[in-house]
Amino acid sequence: MKALHFGAGNIGRGFIGKTLSESGFNVIFSDVNQDIVDAINCKKKYSVKIVGANQDKIVDVKKVSAVNSNDPNIIKIVASVNLITTAVGPRALDKIASIIMYGIILKIQNQSIQPLNIIACENKIRASSFLKQEILKKIPMKYQEYLKKYIGFVDCSIDTIIPFFKNNNDLSLIAEEFKEWIVNITQFKGTIPKIIDMKLSDNLIAFIERKLFTLNTGHAVAAYLGLIKKYKTMKEAISDKKIRSIVRFAMEESGSVLIKRYKFNKNDHLSYIKKIFLRLENPFLSDNLTRIARNPLQKLGREERLIKPLLGAIKYQLPYSNLVKGIAAAFYYQNSKDAESIRIASLIKKQGLKNTLIQISNLPVNSKEVDAIILEYNSILKTIQ
């Protein structure tokens, strides 16, 4: 069995690639970073240090190779593998779609009727379905029937923390023991691949939102608030008593929305939040805040980790003051090396915060929520002057 994985970064190597290798797949990584591609092809393996509650262990990931995403030969690989996965970031899925499309066309030309399943492992709701639509936009009409019959686009939820880690071995990683990979059982074509620790579900959206609006919401709030105070790591941010409190309450506010929407057991969900918080506190998993904060335009989207919980709280008439603090901090986020941060700052300077809020997050015009974010944003300005 062969699997092609797009994205040889932390999640790609430390979670998806590792899991597929342990499940018996020969894993081919695809990445635009030629240094990583060369390192993988030279060593054919790498190690992941698993940090657990009681003990640590080293896992060697073997039988791996790599190809640059711009290498024309990748089309042949797409046409020949049994499984494709991605961990490239939602905004890169459009580029991936073109590569996969040409691979599917070659697969058709080779008269292959071997099913191919594609799982986009991104922090985006129904990322695989989004990828499918991008491919359908590009692929000629005459190939679309084949795609619908033999190509499965399987939505999933993934949850683990793998911080940036660098030592003399550029491929080595540190990963937490906790990991969760839940997939939509109804979207596979052909035989469902046997992948260790992959859970099958017919109620995936609840799990996706549980993870996105708990771990990712907490991560984002801590990062944006931490950067205001010039902290560099998650450990520094979460050790700040004020930030710690805001993050915890923001996750509880988001959790109240999930409990209402999906009828989650309240005690179970509060226990889940506590578990997430303990993971954020783990000093061995402390991540760089600028990495967590990157791509704020995406994170401030209407369906994303900060705005959707706020809209849910508004809908169900639930508290949201701590979510507002995180949103205001995200709009304030300033990073000269982050194009999206520069874009937000430019919009605020040109048209003001209110119009920028409405444009980026699609929030209701003249609403008390917008006023609350503006008030919090101005409070941030006062504290740093």
From TrEMBL:
InterPro entries: 6-PGluconate_DH-like_C_sf, 6PGD_dom2, Mannitol_1_phos_5_DH, Mannitol_DH, Mannitol_DH_C, Mannitol_DH_N, NAD(P)-bd_dom_sf. GO terms for biological process: mannitol catabolic process. Residues 1-195 form the Mannitol dehydrogenase N-terminal domain. Pfam families: Mannitol_dh, Mannitol_dh_C. Keywords: NAD, Oxidoreductase. It catalyses: D-mannitol 1-phosphate + NAD(+) = beta-D-fructose 6-phosphate + NADH + H(+). Transmembrane segments: none annotated. NAD(+) binds at A3, L4, H5, F6, G7, A8, G9, N10, I11, G12, R13, G14. It is an enzyme of class 1 (oxidoreductase). The keyword NAD applies. GO terms for molecular function: mannitol-1-phosphate 5-dehydrogenase activity. The keyword NAD applies. Residues 204-379 form the Mannitol dehydrogenase C-terminal domain. Its EC number is 1.1.1.17. GO terms for cellular component: cytosol. Belongs to the mannitol dehydrogenase family. This is Mannitol-1-phosphate 5-dehydrogenase. It comes from Buchnera aphidicola str. Ak.
